[in-house]
Design brief:
Layout (H helix, E strand, L loop, with lengths): L1 E5 L7 E5 L4 E7 L4 E6 L8 E3 L3 H6 L12 H18 L10 H19 L2
Antiparallel strand pairs: 1-2, 3-4, 4-5
Protein backbone atom coordinates (compact mmCIF):
# COMPACT_ATOMS: atom_id res chain seq x y z
CA UNK A 1 0.00 0.00 0.00
CA UNK A 2 1.12 3.53 -0.75
CA UNK A 3 -0.41 6.82 0.37
CA UNK A 4 -1.19 9.40 -2.31
CA UNK A 5 -3.43 12.43 -2.78
CA UNK A 6 -6.03 12.10 -5.54
CA UNK A 7 -6.92 15.34 -7.37
CA UNK A 8 -9.49 13.81 -9.74
CA UNK A 9 -12.66 15.30 -8.26
CA UNK A 10 -11.30 17.84 -5.82
CA UNK A 11 -8.62 20.48 -6.39
CA UNK A 12 -7.74 20.26 -2.68
CA UNK A 13 -7.16 16.54 -3.02
CA UNK A 14 -8.25 13.47 -1.11
CA UNK A 15 -5.90 11.01 0.58
CA UNK A 16 -6.12 7.50 -0.84
CA UNK A 17 -4.24 4.28 -0.15
CA UNK A 18 -3.37 2.24 -3.23
CA UNK A 19 -2.04 -1.28 -3.40
CA UNK A 20 0.76 -1.19 -6.00
CA UNK A 21 -0.29 -4.60 -7.26
CA UNK A 22 -3.61 -3.15 -8.45
CA UNK A 23 -1.97 -0.65 -10.81
CA UNK A 24 -2.78 -1.58 -14.39
CA UNK A 25 -1.22 1.48 -15.98
CA UNK A 26 -0.29 5.12 -15.65
CA UNK A 27 0.08 8.03 -18.04
CA UNK A 28 1.50 11.48 -17.32
CA UNK A 29 -0.71 14.38 -18.41
CA UNK A 30 1.97 17.07 -18.61
CA UNK A 31 -0.43 19.95 -19.40
CA UNK A 32 -2.31 19.30 -16.17
CA UNK A 33 0.76 18.23 -14.22
CA UNK A 34 -0.99 15.03 -13.13
CA UNK A 35 -0.50 11.31 -13.54
CA UNK A 36 -3.64 9.29 -14.33
CA UNK A 37 -3.62 5.84 -12.76
CA UNK A 38 -6.00 3.02 -13.58
CA UNK A 39 -6.42 -0.46 -12.19
CA UNK A 40 -5.71 -3.88 -13.61
CA UNK A 41 -9.36 -4.90 -13.43
CA UNK A 42 -8.92 -6.74 -10.13
CA UNK A 43 -9.50 -3.90 -7.68
CA UNK A 44 -11.16 -0.51 -7.47
CA UNK A 45 -8.30 1.94 -8.02
CA UNK A 46 -9.39 3.20 -11.43
CA UNK A 47 -9.19 6.80 -12.51
CA UNK A 48 -7.09 8.51 -9.87
CA UNK A 49 -5.07 11.66 -10.64
CA UNK A 50 -1.84 12.29 -8.73
CA UNK A 51 0.79 15.04 -8.88
CA UNK A 52 3.62 12.52 -8.62
CA UNK A 53 5.19 11.11 -11.78
CA UNK A 54 4.79 7.39 -12.56
CA UNK A 55 8.43 6.90 -11.57
CA UNK A 56 7.86 8.57 -8.18
CA UNK A 57 4.74 6.49 -7.55
CA UNK A 58 6.52 3.23 -8.30
CA UNK A 59 9.48 4.23 -6.10
CA UNK A 60 7.32 4.96 -3.04
CA UNK A 61 7.89 2.60 -0.11
CA UNK A 62 4.99 0.39 0.85
CA UNK A 63 3.03 1.06 4.02
CA UNK A 64 1.89 -2.02 5.88
CA UNK A 65 -1.84 -2.41 5.27
CA UNK A 66 -2.73 -2.54 8.97
CA UNK A 67 -0.49 0.41 9.83
CA UNK A 68 -1.94 3.29 7.87
CA UNK A 69 -0.14 6.28 9.33
CA UNK A 70 -2.25 9.36 9.88
CA UNK A 71 -0.74 12.60 8.69
CA UNK A 72 -1.58 14.74 11.71
CA UNK A 73 -0.16 17.92 10.18
CA UNK A 74 -2.50 17.46 7.19
CA UNK A 75 -5.41 16.76 9.56
CA UNK A 76 -4.53 19.90 11.58
CA UNK A 77 -4.60 21.98 8.41
CA UNK A 78 -7.94 20.47 7.31
CA UNK A 79 -9.56 21.06 10.70
CA UNK A 80 -8.35 24.66 10.92
CA UNK A 81 -9.53 25.28 7.34
CA UNK A 82 -12.97 23.82 8.14
CA UNK A 83 -13.30 25.96 11.28
CA UNK A 84 -12.35 29.08 9.31
CA UNK A 85 -14.83 28.23 6.55
CA UNK A 86 -17.58 27.59 9.12
CA UNK A 87 -17.02 31.00 10.70
CA UNK A 88 -17.17 32.76 7.34
CA UNK A 89 -20.23 30.89 6.08
CA UNK A 90 -22.48 31.18 9.13
CA UNK A 91 -25.63 33.04 8.19
CA UNK A 92 -26.49 36.33 9.90
CA UNK A 93 -23.07 36.82 11.45
CA UNK A 94 -21.52 40.11 10.49
CA UNK A 95 -18.22 41.47 11.59
CA UNK A 96 -16.92 38.15 12.90
CA UNK A 97 -13.31 38.66 13.84
CA UNK A 98 -11.15 35.63 13.16
CA UNK A 99 -8.48 34.89 15.70
CA UNK A 100 -6.24 32.46 13.89
CA UNK A 101 -4.39 31.49 17.07
CA UNK A 102 -7.68 30.33 18.59
CA UNK A 103 -8.58 28.41 15.43
CA UNK A 104 -5.25 26.57 15.41
CA UNK A 105 -5.56 25.93 19.17
CA UNK A 106 -9.03 24.42 18.58
CA UNK A 107 -7.63 22.20 15.81
CA UNK A 108 -4.78 21.10 18.09
CA UNK A 109 -7.24 20.31 20.89
CA UNK A 110 -9.38 18.19 18.58
CA UNK A 111 -6.31 16.31 17.34
CA UNK A 112 -5.24 15.60 20.94
CA UNK A 113 -8.66 14.08 21.60
CA UNK A 114 -8.61 12.10 18.33
CA UNK A 115 -5.20 10.67 19.20
CA UNK A 116 -6.51 9.54 22.60
CA UNK A 117 -9.34 7.68 20.91
CA UNK A 118 -6.93 5.78 18.71
CA UNK A 119 -4.77 4.52 21.56
CA UNK A 120 -5.37 1.00 22.82
Amino acid sequence: MIKLIDYRNDEKGKIVFINKSCIGGMIRKEQEGLTRLWDNGVTECAGYDFKETPEEILAMPDIEEGNKVLDWEQRRYEIAKDITAAIYTRPNVKGTLLNYNQIVAAADGLIRELKKGGEK
